[in-house]
Design a protein that fits this description.
This protein is of the alpha/beta class. The chain has helices spanning 13-28, 71-75, 79-92; strands at residues 2-8, 33-39, 52-55, 67-69.
């Protein structure tokens, strides 16, 4: 099972909304993933076994996994494109 880390500034508000949207979109595409959330300050300590970071804020640095902005999941504009990108990344990984 793939593991997605959802990150926002506080680890509460927008990441919770993004997690809910992500779960719905992935379920609709029959993609199973464990989704956890955190704030920008604890990304490094939450990276164990993470396949992808889905972020609602700007992240700098190399975390060793792909980072996808999931702001479109919050606005509804471009959400399908973001989900396509996430699914493609997850499926490309072994």
């Amino acid at each position: 099972m793939k593991k997605i880390l959802v990150v926002c500034g506080s680890g509460i508000a927008t990441s919770t909304a993004a997690v809910n949207e992500l779960q719905e979109y992935l379920a609709a595409r029959n993609v199973e993933a464990e989704i956890i959330q955190c704030d920008v300050f604890t990304v490094d300590s939450n990276l164990q076994d993470v396949d992808l970071i889905a972020s609602t804020c700007a992240l700098t640095g190399d975390f060793g996994v792909p980072i996808v902005s999931v702001v479109p999941l919050l606005t509804g504009m471009g959400a399908d494109r973001v989900i396509d990108e996430i699914v493609q990344i997850l499926q490309a990984q072994k």
